[in-house]
Amino acid sequence: MRQPGSFGLHTLAAGLFLLVAAACAPERHREPRVALLCPSGMAGLLAPLTEAWTERSGMKVQLAEDSPERITRQVNGGAPGDLYISAEPRWLTDLITDGHVNPSETWPLFDDPLVIVTRAQPERPVRHPIDLARPNPLRVALPEGGWTGRVGRAALTEAGLWSGVREHLSQPADGPSAIAALVSGRTEAAILRRSEAVGATTTLTITDWPHSPTTRARVDLALLRTAPHRAEALELARYLTESPEAQAALQAAGLGLSAPPRPDFSPG
Fold first, then answer.
1. Could you check whether 9-111+219-252 and 112-215 share the same CATH topology?
2. How confident is the model at residue 134 (pLDDT cuts 50, 70, 90)?
3. Is 9-111+219-252 in CATH node 3.40.50.10310?
4. What angle do CA 62, 65, 68 make, to 5 degrees?
5. Are 178 and 192 a contacting pair, CB within 8 Å?
6. This model's pTM is above 0.85
7. Which in 60, 80, 207, 243 has the greatest CB count within 10 A?
């Protein structure tokens, strides 16, 4: 599994380079694999699931992660890929609007709640958002953009904590960067998506933000229209959304669905 750190354009570019190189290689050297494009910080969660599917199917999976904005631009630019995981519904809507995804070939994967993360044995435990600001504000990392940055700031404001923590707030580029800052001791807590926290290689303490529909993002799985391995990608989608093994793993990670999925895997 990966080490927590900063994931950006280089990560996705490296994955896409391998995919293009494989497609251009002579037949005897070609190693087919399903390309799964996912948001930064989610590969650690997905890797054990895709490895289990590889054991069953014999088909390898290439995980390429980057920010949702960059993945969307790459897909719009014709980047190769089979399956796409949407960090929030608006990115999937963009790809459907642009003609890269058939609306009937999308499936809900899990609900991704906002959480507070600290080191395994913090000097000051955080059991509730109010602990971030009282009695003294902690040094908190909140990713600058995307769903986490937008919803995290709104949640702090709604809880009446924004004014208390903002002077002690750092805003790294993404979830993996926030985890790196936490592990190094530069910050004492981080506000993240649960999928980012459970996928980290280091042991962390995770505290759920008080439940609210606005602090949970629906994560969807979609088949790209130009998927070069369509049949295998559909089988992987079926495994991730239907198999007891994958569902049990997601539930154990606190990443269930608020409503049961109704996938349809007919090739169409």
1. yes
2. confident
3. no
4. 135
5. yes
6. no
7. 80
Q: What is the DSSP string of 193-258?
A: EHHHHHT-SS-EEEEEPPP-GGGEEEEEEEEETT-TTHHHHHHHHHHHHH-HHHHHHHHHTT---S
* Local confidence band at 31 (pLDDT 50, 70, 90 cut-offs): low
Residue of 113, 75, 80 lying closest to 91 (CA atoms): 75
Pairwise CA distance, residues 75 & 98, whole Å: 10
Tokens of 227: 């998927």
Percent of the chain with pLDDT over 70: 84
Nearest-angstrom CA–CA distance, 29 and 61: 17
Per-domain residue ranges of the chain: 9-111+219-252, 112-215
Which H/E stretch holds residue 131? none
CATH topology for 112-215 is D-Maltodextrin-Binding Protein; domain 2 (3.40.190)
Phi/psi at 107 (nearest 5 deg)?
Answer: -145, 135
Q: Which residues contact 233 (CB under 8 A, 6 or more apart)?
A: 34, 82, 83, 223, 227
pLDDT at 258: 76
Q: Mean of the pLDDT values across residues 228-233?
A: 96
